[in-house]
Amino acid sequence: MLYASFAGAGPLPALGPAFNPATGAWTMAADAAVGSQTLHLSGLQQPVNVTMEADGTTHIVAQTDHDLFLATGYMHARFRLFQMDLLRRQGEGRLSEVVGKAALDSDRFELQLGLLRTAQAEWSAASSRSRLAEIAYAQGVNDRISEAETNHQLPAMFTLLGYQPKPWTPVDSLIVKGDMTQTLNFTDTPLVMALLQKSLGSDLTAQWFTTLPPNPQSPYDPGPYPPGASPAPIAAFSQVTDSEAVAAADAYQRLASLPAGLVASGGDSNNWAVAGFRSTSGGSLMAGDPHLHLTLPAIWYQLTLDSPSYHVSGVSIPGTPVVLIGHNQHISWSLTDAQNQQTFFYLEHEDATHPGQYFWKNAWQKYNTVSYDIPVLGGPTDHLTVKLSVHGPVITERGQTTSVWWAGNIPSQDLDVLLGIDQASNYQQFRDALSGWYSPTHNFVYADDQGNIGLISAGYYPQFAAGQPWLPMPGTGEYDVTGTIPYDLIPQKYNPPDGIIWSANQRQVTPDYPYYIGTASNFFDPGYRANEIHRVLSQATTLSAADMMALQTDTRDYLASEIVPILLQAIPASPSKDLLSSWDYRMEVNSPAATIWWTFWQSYLSATFDPYWKARDVTVARSDVNDALGQDLEAWTLGDQNNAVFKFGGSSNTATDVMRLAFASTVTQLTRQLGADPSTWTWGKVHQRVIENLAQVKGLDYGPRPDRGDANTPLAAPDFPSSNGPSWRMVVDWGKGTFQAIYPGGQSENPASAWYDDRVNAWFDGKYAAMLTADQAAKSGGAISWRLQP
Amino acid sequence: MRVLAAVILALIVSVAGVLAGAWWAPFVAGLAIGFVEPRARVAVPAGAIVGLLAWALPLVAVQLRYGAGASAESLAAIMGFGHQGAIPVILTLVVGLLLGATGAWLGSASRSLISPQLVKG
User: Fold this and answer.
1) 3-state class (DSSP) for residue A615
2) Residue in A2, A26, A700 nearest the CB of B62
3) Residue A348 located in a structural domain
4) How large is the ipTM?
5) How far is B104 from chain A (nearest CA, A)?
6) A593 found inside a domain
7) pLDDT, mean of each 10-residue run, chain A (790 residues)
8) Domain residues for A613?
9) How far apart are CA A386 and CA A405, in angstroms?
10) Closest chain B residue to A20 measured between Cα atoms?
11) What are the φ and ψ backbone dihedral angles of A218, each rounded to 5 degrees?
12) What CATH number has the domain bearing residue A630?
């Protein structure tokens, strides 16, 4: 015990400093007690007033822009310092230094991929506006680090892990931005396609994984477009060779073994706007709910920023000095992931007579290399050398050397763009600001105080002179990225005549759009949420903020509304069928029909595709491509029930036959799982939601608890248990001047704080809180005031 | 009297040290007690009491000022004990106790090596 007190033992930290009741982890009790006070911060130019509402929502009023960002950094660090440190360590490949070799694969991958190199390049090219913000922000963070170290107030996780945070730098803020870019836009889909082509076969891959979606969808920008050619359907330009398959399998498995969130796996966000002429208040309406991994602490920190140049309210990501989603005095905005393909793989041509080189544009090129040392807690330092071709970092040398071109590695001044948006007062300024946004590509919805609405899918859309970018391509130069779609021609819409606009990760454009933006499976959403949102918005003649909130918590499964009526015609009478017959397609906790539907759809997918998977020994898990296969199955069920897919092994089955088999299997499975009485098969028994602790401490999770929704509903709740969903819900009514929002979490990362998870129950209940101004907050009950002095 | 005075002095020094971040102060105080009182049967319990109180009093202060319950439950969760808040409290007190006791034992043993006749007396 004495030894453990000094040096720790195994997973135990050094018990002495960790459990010292005055300066160790017990200080989380003092940290949780937040009262009014005056503080002195180094670097401030003028006094700054900070007001915190009873729930910790923070309002910063500064007399200079510099002080605004400095105070923002201080407040972020005061309540989220450990989260910020984790985020930068993840992107910089420095997790192993504090958690040991368990994080080494992640660190090696991140350093290979190049978030650090990109952040450094971005900082070198940063504008004066963003330099001011990021330097002041870093100063504020460092003020807090110094203060916490002096007063023994570092967050308990630092004490327990036995390390102290290094000073914050502007590059760290850009790394945090890079983390988000990666989690939203770095994909492995070309590797998946290569493995499918190799194992499932070119014939079925081409039929089932099409360029354009086979199912009915609701693009928000239906054109007209400039003249040009539409994307070609997927076809096999050549067989995937054995060495290419080995390379694809190696890279695919490597990416699959990384911690969740490092590879984007699809999107589940919503946003929409209603023009003033269609709203009950007469002003425009806007709603946004970005769906992300739900964690405690949340990815968001809610605040308002007031200074001579900024008057903005919304949510920021701790580690960055800007409001990412919110409103100012004239405009509001939110975003969803645009899902266009931003990741491409290149098979480098090498030869034994040219070691360390690759063939590109008719000449042998030498790989660039960069080396890193990765400190590993409890082990030797790991040395990593990254090879870089003209396309990007080499991620595997097994089979055939493969490098990755990722738009996230193009320096993108996103923070400067967001500062521009924070200051914009009309659509032109908003749109101009977004012209510098490259990655991750987002659908930015817009509404303003003049009744205008808009949506623009800002970002980089890689274009090619030749090749099939949904597969790994030869790296010899002919298939390189040649540029992007001109900004004026990317998907966008301003003040559409019907007065509504929406996005939910669906393909934004129709098949007539003349540019390649990705295939149906790479990696746009199947479109069910977008279809449901469009259905609801188009039905009403006028809409209110209450309607926006109802739609954000809508659990109607659009796919079920299409398929269940057909299913009911296919199956014989039974208690389960009766439940489906009277169902409103809502995935509510107490609905047994919801359970039957969801289980049926999984059985239907399995009955249709698993025979092929088994017969051809497909090396990609079917569940990894269920979104694409589901769109096919939906389309065939709605309009091609005699499709050959149903006739596996020479049978004469139709969709009806397979549905009947799948339904019987569903009833058998649910009887075995939940008992003989179908009326007790409620959705809440099989579908739960959990909000996970960011440091993966199970005891600090919220839930799991039964919850409504599924992967297809506007209130998205994919997976079992679901840990993804609406990370922030915001509804704006410019007619009434009301701004309401909520996120599932709390402002503090301290689990002993009342602000750790105090908003979660209200979020589950679909409630919202008013987004107050600083003046309103100061007069609100339970407000806390801080005076920050130079 | 001499031992009691040493214990009180050691306790004051230990608490001050712990509050200042010197979590090992009870160990040093225990060493001093053991040196002053080389009889282990006296020094070790005295050191243990000093160590226990040196860590318990600041913990009591935390409880009185802020409430320690939520912190205890959080620490238990981080340690993998669910929400059994008593466990980190006990662990904290045991660490303090052992620091004081082992310090006193070491001090007592060291003194007995230097002056073995004192232990016999």
Assistant:
1) helix
2) A26
3) no
4) 0.92
5) 13
6) yes
7) 75 84 93 95 97 98 98 98 97 95 94 97 96 98 96 92 95 97 93 93 91 93 83 64 88 88 82 98 98 96 98 98 98 96 95 94 97 94 97 93 95 95 98 95 97 97 91 94 95 97 96 91 90 97 97 98 98 97 98 98 98 96 94 97 96 97 98 98 98 94 96 95 96 98 98 97 98 97 97
8) 558-686
9) 14
10) B23
11) -125, 75
12) 1.10.1400
